[in-house]
């Protein structure tokens, strides 16, 4: 057979019958090495996402809360008011108010780090951008109640307080398909009427905070030790002046959490 005939036969074998072909062993080793160091998984998610976000180590998964821990936060009659969870679990809880900041990179952060966060939304602030919070909810964030219009509730009539709380329950239930269990009163102010109205609107607990992160990225403490402790509820204040994005402030907080030997827990698992 001529050389031209041999070449044609080889090509036909490769195309039609899938003949086995030898692979250079050096080439095979190179392919395996490339697979080991490939920076992304099959879905495009970085294999070590914590490094992408400026963390030196991954966040450990939060432990499963004990029944005793959950029972201590439960109340009878009026919903309890909690600013810190009584637990020995080495967790803190990240909460965000209002819904003014709609940082798309924050959605990526929550998704890639599987970060449990609680968003307390005010309709008059968050309402025009509920699509953003639907995306956050789809990657694991929880959506909770922060009233329709953000008034200071203490001293207001029962009818006014109930309208603010139940109105937002209805709005969020209609938008997201479920009504919140948790409520944060604006400015952290409330009275017995607030608790009664919240109970009548189906609220399980009023959630305050012990620690807050200012717009500039500093931690402040309402009471107790000036350090992060297990069970702390942390509120990230809305930012208007510092120039730091919500993602950047959250990463700063996560570094502080890791320095304290803690991780982030899901608030709704404890209340």
Radius of gyration: 26 Å
Q: How many domains make up the 3D coordinates?
A: 2
Average of pLDDT: 84
Q: What is the CATH architecture annotation of the largest domain?
A: Alpha-Beta Barrel
- Helix and strand composition category: alpha/beta
- The CATH topology label of the largest domain is TIM Barrel
Q: Say which CATH homologous superfamily of the largest domain is assigned.
A: Glycoside hydrolase/deacetylase
Output the helix-strand order: HHHHEEHEHHEHEHEEEEHE
- The CATH class of the largest domain is Alpha Beta
Q: Major sheet, described briefly? A: 7 strands, mixed
- Number of distinct helices: 10
Percent of residues in helices = 25-40%
Distance between the termini: 82 Å
Shape: globular
Please describe what this structure looks like:
By secondary structure, this protein is an alpha/beta fold. It has two domains: 35 residues, no CATH class; 210 residues, Alpha-Beta Barrel (TIM Barrel). 38% of the residues lie in helices and 13% in strands. It contains ten helices and ten strands. The strands form two sheets. Strands 2, 3, 4, 7, 8, 9 and 10 form a seven-stranded mixed β-sheet that branches. Helix 9 links the parallel strand 5 and strand 6. The chain is globular. About 12% of the residues have low confidence.
């Amino acid at each position: 057979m001529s050389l031209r005939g041999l070449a044609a036969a080889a090509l036909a074998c490769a195309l039609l019958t899938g003949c086995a072909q030898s692979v250079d062993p050096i080439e095979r080793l190179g392919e395996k090495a490339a697979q080991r160091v490939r920076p992304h998984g099959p879905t495009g998610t970085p294999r070590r996402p914590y490094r992408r976000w400026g963390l030196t180590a991954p966040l450990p998964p939060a432990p499963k809360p004990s029944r005793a821990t959950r029972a201590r936060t439960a109340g009878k009659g009026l919903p309890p008011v909690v600013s810190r969870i009584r637990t020995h679990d080495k967790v803190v809880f990240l909460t965000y108010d209002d819904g003014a900041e709609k940082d798309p990179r924050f959605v990526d952060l929550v998704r890639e780090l599987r970060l449990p966060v609680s968003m307390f939304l005010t309709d008059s602030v968050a309402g025009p951008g509920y699509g953003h919070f639907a995306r956050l909810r789809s990657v694991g964030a929880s959506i909770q109640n922060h009233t329709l219009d953000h008034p200071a509730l203490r001293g207001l009539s029962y009818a006014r307080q109930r309208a603010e709380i139940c109105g937002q329950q209805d709005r969020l239930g209609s938008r997201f398909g479920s009504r919140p269990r948790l409520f944060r009163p604006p400015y952290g102010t409330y009275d017995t009427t607030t608790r009664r109205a919240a109970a009548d609107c189906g609220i399980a607990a009023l959630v305050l905070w012990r620690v807050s992160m200012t717009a500039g990225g500093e931690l402040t403490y309402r009471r107790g030790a000036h350090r992060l402790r297990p069970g702390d509820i942390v509120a990230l204040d809305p930012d208007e002046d510092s120039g730091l994005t919500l993602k950047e402030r959250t990463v700063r907080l996560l570094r502080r959490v890791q320095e304290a030997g803690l991780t982030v827990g899901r608030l709704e698992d404890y209340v």
